[in-house]
Amino acid sequence: NAGVTQTPKFQVLKTGQSMTLQCAQDMNHEYMSWYRQDPGMGLRLIHYSVGAGITDQGEVPNGYNVSRSTTEDFPLRLLSAAPSQTSVYFCASSYTRPGTGVTEAFFGQGTRLTVV
Amino acid sequence: AQSVTQLGSHVSVSEGALVLLRCNYSSSVPPYLFWYVQYPNQGLQLLLKYTSAATLVKGINGFEAEFKKSETSFHLTKPSAHMSDAAEYFCAVSRGGGFKTIFGAGTRLFVKA
Predict the structure, then answer these.
(1) How far is CA A88 from the centre of its chain?
(2) CA distance B48 to A29
(3) CA separation for the pair A60, A66 (Å, rounded)
(4) Closest CA to B81 of B112, B60, B59, B58
(5) A34 CB within 8 Å of a chain B CB
(6) pLDDT tens track for A35-79
(7) Does A48 touch chain B if contact means CB atoms closer than 8 Å?
(8) Is the pLDDT of residue A27 over 80?
(9) Best interface-test mutation with A: which of B6, B9, B32, B99 has the largest number of A CBs within 10 A?
(10) How many whole angstroms separate alpha carbon B81 and alpha carbon B90?
(11) What average pLDDT does range B16-44 have in this prediction?
């Protein structure tokens, strides 16, 4: 199992450009989510998905779009990049252990994005 | 609403000394609590989790955490720090049955030789 795979690992964008961050998981998890990590702020939830075809907004959704056409893939799109979106982005795949209600998240290695 | 507060953005200990990373939570329902570790340029890795089965939780790499409801705390400890423990540590809370996990701001642990 590869777990959660994010591409690219690094990206530099110019203000106004658009791009898609890719995330794929091979654990057949229903839940997937995108976080951004900024110094001193921990991880903040951008968007999440509870299954193919179902997505919703997290804490900081503005400027980002997502879609979930398959269980495996959950791409994050930046519509018009801004310097405030310079961050490290993590994709996570989660499952809830049956009978316990406990959800455990597995993280990708991150995408470091710089917007100039 | 749930929240997590990690006390101290940086903690420095000597190799072999006790590690104590503090986490306090706020939750209107019994929480599920987690500690994650992040090594440089890596994603987050689950260290341990509290699921109400036992208040003292043992994790990987010799870490453990104790859930104290009266203090709304879930502090992370390790009796003897090792150089390889240098990393950033995140406390997190969820309500369970879902995937919305709220993270603290993180505490960076430095280990001095």
Answers:
(1) 10
(2) 20
(3) 13
(4) B112
(5) no
(6) 999 988 889 989 999 899 999 998 899 999 999 999 999 999 999
(7) yes
(8) yes
(9) B99
(10) 17
(11) 89
